[in-house]
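An example makes the point: we let one protein speak, the chain in one-letter code, the fold tokenised, and here it is:
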Amino acid sequence: MLAIRPITPADNAAIARVIRTVMSEFNCVGEGYSINDPEVEDMADTYNAEGSAFFVVEQEIGGAAGAGEGFSGAVVVGGAGYAPLAGGDGTVCELRKMYLLGEGRGFGSGRLLMEACLEGARAAGYTRMYLETVTAMTDAAEVYKKYGFEYLASPLGETGHSGCNLYMARDL
């Protein structure tokens, strides 16, 4: 079973682990990638600002490997958020740090996160959503296209993510 909810300070370590695991999986660890953003250490505080939100997806588990015999409960398997696009005009937000662990993929987690972010961004008054990714994340790009994101020829704003090579946006 999946559940989505706003991030809390208690989720900081778990979502940092998700980000580091997924970025490493796709070899996106050097300069110019979001794995190095200072906000990774305290996502709850970073996204506790006007025009921003971050959501985590929890998956119910039972007897997870390494969790101890008989352990059951919910674990954070992914997250995503939005915030004003750095260097933007205030009408564009950026879809940020949408990452899912392997065990969280294929069950609708991406759909839950995307719909929460799109709905939240619209309610916050944004008219366009932008994102950056890499060609290696082909499944993610397919999800973005499914939700109406289109490729752009060049990046928008000043995200500092020079390691990204795909840029997409959609109207809200």
User: Anything to note?
Assistant: The two ends are 29 Å apart (CA to CA). Strands lie at 2-6, 53-62, 72-84, 92-100, 128-133, 150-152, 166-171. Residues 64-68 have pLDDT under 50 and may be disordered. Residues 109-123 form the longest helix (15 residues).
